Batch of 3 targets.
Target 1
Amino acid sequence: MRETLLSLADTMSGSDLIKAKAAKAIMAQQVHAACAPGGSAKLRAELLRELMTILASKRPRLVRAHAIELIGFLGSKSDDKALARLAADPELKDNIKMARERLRRGS
């Protein structure tokens, strides 16, 4: 059973830097594994929902920026609209721009 991205995002938000770094790596590993050929569409959709929830939360900027980066790998062109609505956020503007570019290239 995998640990949810929401739980890992909470760990990333904590004060223990070693656990935060490990949580970030596990999040990335889960997303990249789901993106592999033959990956489950259901799992990809579930991970994407969790990442969007993290993005809409009040978690620290670095946690939300990591979620945006992962959305760029996991999402599709249709997810560009969800990111576009957040593009005006000055804290995440550059992260969103990079993720949207990755989505437009057909990731």
Target 2
Amino acid sequence: MSEHVTLPGGLDDDVLAALLATPGGAVLHARSGVDATGRARTVLTLAHPDPEVVALTRQNLLRGCRKGGVRAFVV
């Protein structure tokens, strides 16, 4: 199972590294680029066979985003 979390705007390398190290058990991958309107976006993919592990990792990731002042949207 996998989920995607979109982070609008640019992220510095330290913030991205901290988010990719989010605990919970799911594997996280980042993909950065621009959307159709030309705005910077980073999409984090959380993947694990167990949906509970994905959910736990997602909640930890969203907490980390809030703590760091990073906007995040689950898609």
Target 3
Amino acid sequence: MDKDQILEKARKENLFNDEAKNNKMKKGNEWGFIAASSILILFGFIFYFKDKNVSHIVSIHGAYVGFKGLGKYFANKEKSDLVYAFGGLLLFVGSFILAVADIWKL
């Protein structure tokens, strides 16, 4: 193997372990989460004050939080991520049931 082949192989193997790239992605995910949460909270308040059901908005946010936490838990096996995921999934399931019941007028 010559020098260029070795460097190319190293780049391919290190594609997912690039710290700078992973840090940028993490920061982007944090800002996206903050923005999405803020917008969902804003819509939640608007719907609440207009006497509309907000459970569908809460269920979307709960699903996002829960599955984001599950992904983090499966990646690093930290108990705090599991608690985070469990809370988000509970929020999702409860609000989803309420949203479906409201849609079908149960």
